[in-house]
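Record format v2
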Amino acid sequence: MNKRTLTAGTALLLFLVPAALFGQKNSCLDCHAKLEDTLKVSAEAVKNDIHVQFGLTCKDCHGGNPDIDDDKAMDRTFRGSPKKAEIPGFCARCHSDAALMRTYNPSLRVDQLSQYETSKHGQQLKKGDTKVAVCTDCHGVHDIQTAKFPKSPTFPWNIPQTCGKCHADAELMKGYNIPSNQLAQYKESVHAQALFDKKDMSAPACNDCHGNHGAVPPEVKSIASVCRQCHPSTGELFSKSPHKKAFDEIGQSECEACHGNHKILRPTAEMLGTGEKSVCVQCHDQGSAGYKSAAALKSAIDTYQGRYDREIGTLDLAERKGVEISDARFKLQGALTVLVSAKNLVHSLSTDEVDKKLAESDPILTEVDQAGADALREAKFRRSGLVVATFFLALFGVALFFKIRTMHKPG
Amino acid sequence: MNARVQKLLDYFDERFQYAGLVKFAKKKTVPEHPKSFWYYFGGISLFLTGIQIATGIMLLLYYTPSIDAAHESVQFIMGGVKFGWLIRSVHSWTANILIGILFVHMFSTYFLKAYRKPRELTWMTGFVLFVVFLAFGFSGYLLPWNELSYFATRVGTDIVGSVPLIGKWLKTIVLGGPAIGQGTLSRFFWFHVAILPFAAFFVIVVHVWLVQSLGMSKPIGIDERKVKEIPFFPDFMFKDALAWTFILVIVGIVCVFLPWEVGKKADPFAMTPLGIKPEWYFTFMFTTLKVVPGHVLFIEGEVLVILAIMVGAMFWLLAPYIDRKAARGEKSPLFTWIGVAVAIYIAVFTVLTYVAPKI
């Protein structure tokens, strides 16, 4: 068999299999597509459902015989539609069956039900509260998509909205005595900026901190572990710092105490020191060692930041004057890396460590400073050169002009 | 003249036989009349071509035609080579000014009907030179291998792919493969520094030879009493030199205050930046392609535009033979109005590209 025949055969097969699946009789859909309200099933939505794409049909979940018309289709195998409290178990019949799931998607986990049972949602459901989320509240019903599909409600940048369907509903949350401003706060956070604006899939959405099927609010002792998933070096520095012992003693959550939880903003130098926006003064009184240390750390970062900004300003000016400075800009990236590392080192609370780190970029900043000064000198030289060249060219032009006028005078 | 110098000149004349040429140059006159201002654009074009050759040769010293090094080499020229910024900026700015001057030169020649018999071949070689210089611009634009030039070239070569019948074949030839890559850069470089200069040199020689042998054309119906003849050398040459000096000052000012930027290195995997467009002299064609619907009757809109441009270019090239009235020395207002329509179309569509990029 040649390659072309093989390709054509594969294409035909790929066309015929779905055609056979969709082509076969399905009395469930024939009727439910025409029914109203809770009995209505959209044929269009079902077509895109991940289960249907894997070749499953209505009877695989609901039982019955779709080959038979009318009520007779609901034979003794018919399971009907599960009640809300039954849904986790209903889905788990397949999703907890490792052998069965392997035949469709070997990489898919099969512990969703057991995780769900440990979650706040699962625990409430067990108590008979049917207002809590079950599988279908997050994944949909007959239009379920894989979490890798961008339009799926469980795709990373849709997750905040999916959770917010319930958690931003003040009326619903009132019954549980929990706030409903998490979604609004998250949307202002640096994490949301990364997820929504930069489309950075590694940025955390709700499930990355709270878990998904086993979703619970992290407790004081686990918050630091949650943050350390993505910020391990910061966590390590904190653990070695005097803050660790102090926080443990008073039962204070680690990262959250300064950075907040849902509304985690981009950290700025303003958070350090003793100013109005400083988080240090929440605990450290004026004159205390911590107060002095906070001031020293801020001073070190500010001094460096000022020097870095000056270099950026010089390079910007040189660039506006038309001098090529990409080499100097590239070198300055090294100084920025040092600044980012130093800001991270603040979590160690060691002024010496921060100073030592910042000093690493001294040669870079000196070099960039020189390059910036050279670039500005070059810009000045170019303008002076232009003035001189234009002067001589103008002189030549004027001489030519008068020569031409002389030549054209009669006689 | 010093006897020794005369002896030296005689020595060379005996071998090069240039006495006739000198005699021709001394006797050569140029008509001067109220519209002779437009004659100078030819000389300016030749002067700017000289600058392009000189700066291009200098850039060759440092430019590396490789997708891994082209951008870096241009960056080095702009920042690391003494006066490299000036050479490259002069090359890039002059290229654009030259094409602008060529537009003026071509349209002034058209409106003065200077293409009429016996100057048909002067016009045709001039038009070929115009196309050659557009090709210089198109091929040179990609060489710095920056984001804008990369994506603009992709747009340009996609248009080439729409040429009826031979489009796909032609696009593969131009690209040197299925997509823009090292093959394309090598070809564009080869085209820019070897093929086009050779073609341009040959056509310029023929064009200038025809201009010199036939002399300048006088506008149809001009009052002969208002025309006087001035010597080519030194009178006309001095005026030419004055124009060149003026252009040189302009080039110097723009190069110092607006050096040609290097841009961001091209990343073939990056998304096409918004509002990408070709160089300004191609934008009228680009916007035409955008405004014409996908299908016009039974023909694809893109194909229709390309066919129309090809027919238009053919008309423009053969204008001296089509405009029979001008050939007889009579005024031909129809051709003047066609020229006005073409000039307005080019100007309007070029401006539209920048003021209404979303059309």
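Chain A has 23 helices and no strands.
Residues 289-380 of chain A form one domain.
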